[in-house]
Every structure is written in structure tokens, then in C-alpha cells.
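Hi everyone, sorry if this is the wrong subforum. Our group has a chain we'd like a structural model of before ordering constructs, and none of us has done structure prediction before. Sequence below.
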Amino acid sequence: MVTLNASFVIVPKNAPKAVEIGVFLPVIGYSVIYITCVGVFSRMALMEITYPIVELATEVYIPGEFFERLCMFPKNISDFSKMGPVISYFVAKLRGVKSDVS
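Answer:
Right subforum, don't worry. Here is the predicted structure as C-alpha cells:
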């Protein structure tokens, strides 16, 4: 057993289960989104739509006009994906995890 910190323990025998969960959750999520998009639109319409999830979100009405602000959706997703490693780095530094990268 390898320990990095008192609250974080790596157990190698749990790795296959963690990989299965990490692979199958996105597959299930994308499958649900795909089936929903094909159900709402048609297969021919999906060939013409650049961002089908954004179009699907604009079809849904929720009180408060939440989905009316989705024109910035792709930019927000790219910003969050760029900030993930930065946030992880600072959290690791706060927890006292040492790394080989300086």
C-alpha cells in the first residue's frame, strides 16, 4: 500500500474498479445525451447542427429564462477545462502533496 497523505490512500487492487467507473460513467452520459438529441431532433437534423446540446437546451423551458444565456456555453466549457489543472495544483499544494514538477 502506498500512502501519499494521511487522508489519501492509493490501493492498487481497487484500480480496475475505478477505471471501469471512470470509463462507463461518461459513456452512459454521452449515450443518454445522444439518444435524447436523436429523439428530439432527427438524424438528418443532427447532421446540420453544430452544437446539438446547446440547441437541445434552448428547446427546454425552465422558468427564469436560464437557458437564454447559452450563447457563451462553448467558451465557458473551454475556460473550465483550462482551469481544472490549475485548481488541482493549488489544492494539492494546500494539502501538502509534493510533486517532482517544479
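For your construct planning: The first strand starts at residue 2 and ends at 5. The radius of gyration is 20 Å.
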